[in-house]
Design a protein that fits this description.
This protein starts with 11 loop residues before the first helix and ends in an 8-residue tail after the last helix. The chain has 14 helices and 8 strands. Strands 1, 2, 3, 4, 5, 6, 7 and 8 form an 8-stranded mixed beta sheet that branches. It is globular and about 60 Å long. With about 325 residues, the chain is of the alpha/beta class. The protein folds into 2 domains: about 5-55; about 60-310, Alpha-Beta Complex (2-enoyl-CoA Hydratase, Chain A, domain 1), CATH 3.90.226.10.
């Protein structure tokens, strides 16, 4: 397994040995197969032990893992006939936020999400998942389109935050984010958000003012990154580990604080180890959540959504 994280070192030697066995001539037959099965079981148990006690900072590392599935990976698995829709009809087509119509169990939905990219070229193309104002305005356009055609909205959030460049600020970054949040609160159609990796800053919240906010079990969600928080509080980004503890940014913390509504468990070792299994679990969960919202009228959804966000934090013990 490439890109092992520092706390996964105990499984490094086991995975190296497993890789060697897989490349051996199978002349030994059953013995090699048995040894591979034994090693796989040992790796699984070791990962289960490690991931059962991850610290908040370690979860940040998992959420940022370079091989973690992104928006387009999930779309290829969970949405049939997915058709990308482009542009904000005002300035440009931002590639950090993508969206379009696809079918989920035979039902048309509007899917919108952040895409970070995986190779050097795709990361540059998608600006590492950091959207500019035109990305958020595209999201607003697609949400309004979904409302017009009575399509549920599904957003997959995975961003370190909105792009902080001068050009983005000149084109109204703050207004674009605020308009996206406002639109999410107002659309009269079922709206489900999943934090699939890193939910950072207002750039993440812009696509997460939903009826139901879900998180993958190793995802993180916070108004600021640990490094940014440490820089502001202590003027020392190296204290990010301490900041991660204080921010309460894990799925387990946030469900206790009632910021998120449901945790979707990841495969042992993280979503990047078994992306197909993760996509299947995400698909079934989305179908289930949308079916729960089907019985509600548009005005009821909006009213409950407003109440939900007005009461977040009211009785939380920080």
């Amino acid at each position: 397994m490439e890109n092992l994280l520092d706390f996964e070192e105990p499984v490094m030697a086991l995975e190296s040995k497993l890789e060697e066995l897989r490349h051996l001539d199978d002349g030994e037959g059953v013995n090699i197969i048995e040894e591979i099965a034994r090693l796989q079981g040992k790796i699984e148990r070791q990962l289960q032990s490690i991931y059962a006690k991850l610290t908040p900072w370690q979860k940040v590392q998992v959420a940022r893992h370079p091989q973690r599935p992104h928006f387009l990976d999930y779309m290829s698995s969970i949405a049939d006939d997915f058709l990308l829709l482009s542009g904000d009809r005002a300035f440009a087509d931002d590639q950090a936020i993508l969206g379009g119509v696809g079918s989920l169990k035979g039902r048309s939905c509007m899917f919108i999400g952040m895409e970070k990219g995986k190779t050097v070229n795709t990361r540059l193309k998608h600006n590492f998942g950091m959207a500019r104002p035109e990305g958020y305005r595209k999201a607003v356009r697609l949400m309004r389109m979904a409302e017009r055609f009575s399509l549920p909205v599904v957003t997959l959030v995975d961003t370190p935050g909105a792009y902080p460049g001068v050009g983005a600020e000149e084109r109204g970054q703050a207004e674009a984010i605020a308009r996206a949040v406002s639109t999410g609160l107002e659309v009269r159609t079922p709206f489900v958000t999943v934090i699939i990796g890193e939910g950072g800053s207002g750039g993440a919240i812009a696509l997460a003012s939903a009826d139901r906010v879900l998180m993958l079990s190793n995802a993180v969600y916070s108004l600021i990154s640990p490094e940014g928080c440490a820089t502001i509080l202590w003027r020392d980004a190296s204290r990010a580990v301490q900041a991660a503890e204080a921010l309460r940014l894990t799925a387990q913390d946030l469900i206790t604080l009632k910021v998120v509504d449901r945790i979707i468990e990841e495969p042992v070792g993280g979503a990047h180890r078994k992306p197909d299994a993760m996509a299947e679990s995400l698909k079934h969960t989305l179908i289930e959540e949308l079916e729960k919202l089907d019985a509600s009228e548009g005005h009821d959804l909006v009213e409950r959504r407003h109440e939900k966000y007005l009461h977040i934090g009211a009785a939380a013990h920080l």
